[in-house]
Amino acid sequence: MKATLLRPEDYTRSPWKNGGGIFTDIADAHCADAAVKDWSSLLWRFASTPIVAPGPFSHMPGIDRLQMVVGGRGLVLKAPGQEFDEREPFTTVRFTGELEIVTELHAGPVEVVNLMARRGAVEIELEALREAGDRSLPAGTHLVYAPHGDCRIRLDGEDLAIPGNGTLRIELTEASRLALVSGPVVLGSIRIVG
């Protein structure tokens, strides 16, 4: 097991793929043989971003996306023939990067967390932990993000503090136990396929 604390000053900022905003890149991984780290070499990305006005989402063929509102409320994603309701914070929605999505804001700007992954190469999960309790974490990469102030977790019996807006990146080679002591936290889980 390896645990690394990522602080906000470690994060990078980049434009959305469609240029419509700026996201904060918390952690990511690209193909090992990629000459350039760009959207075409992306394996996975965990990022946060404000959505301050209605508008289209970036077109991302081959990318699966999970998204959750962590600040504000009232976001709905509209796609042809379907919609994804994120009006309540900490609700996870899953959609593909090929969908033509336009956002609707029902109560002002929101802050969202995104976990994106190359389809077929990576499996991802995104959930909010708000109640104290423990769970099993499988082998893989796990990101524990503290969106609203300082949080504490227990990882295999070791107490760890995560400062507000910080992220604990956990690399596991075998299953482990994670307990939320104080939160809420957002847990992103990544498993490379094959």
Q: How many E-type strands?
A: 18
Number of helices: 0
Question: Strand-and-helix sequence, N→C?
Answer: EEEEEEEEEEEEEEEEEE
CATH architecture of the largest domain: Sandwich
Rg estimate, integer Å:
16 Å
Q: What value does the average pLDDT take?
A: 93
Task: Tell me about the largest β-sheet.
Answer: 6 strands, antiparallel
Fraction of residues in helices? under 10%
CATH domain class of the largest domain? Mainly Beta
Protein name: HutD protein
Organism: Bradyrhizobium shewense
InterPro entries: RmlC-like_jellyroll, RmlC_Cupin_sf, Uncharacterised_HutD/Ves
Pfam families: HutD (PF05962)
Descriptive overview:
- This protein has 194 residues and is an all-beta fold.
- It has strands at 2-6, 12-15, 22-30, 42-51, 63-71, 75-79, 82-86, 92-96, 102-105, 110-118, 122-129, 133-137, 140-145, 151-155, 158-162, 167-172, 176-182, 185-192.
- It folds into 2 domains: 11-120, Sandwich (Jelly Rolls); 125-192, Jelly Rolls, CATH 2.60.120.
- It has no helices and 18 strands.
- It has a 6-stranded antiparallel sheet with strand order 2-3-4-10-5-8, with no helix packed on it.
- Strand 14 (151-155) and strand 15 form a beta hairpin.
Give a brief description:
With 194 residues, the chain is mostly beta strands.
Q: What order do the helices and strands come in, and which of them pair?
A:
Layout: E1 2-6, E2 12-15, E3 22-30, E4 42-51, E5 63-71, E6 75-79, E7 82-86, E8 92-96, E9 102-105, E10 110-118, E11 122-129, E12 133-137, E13 140-145, E14 151-155, E15 158-162, E16 167-172, E17 176-182, E18 185-192
Antiparallel strand pairs: 1-16, 2-3, 3-4, 4-10, 5-8, 5-10, 6-7, 6-9, 11-18, 12-17, 13-16, 13-18, 14-15, 14-17
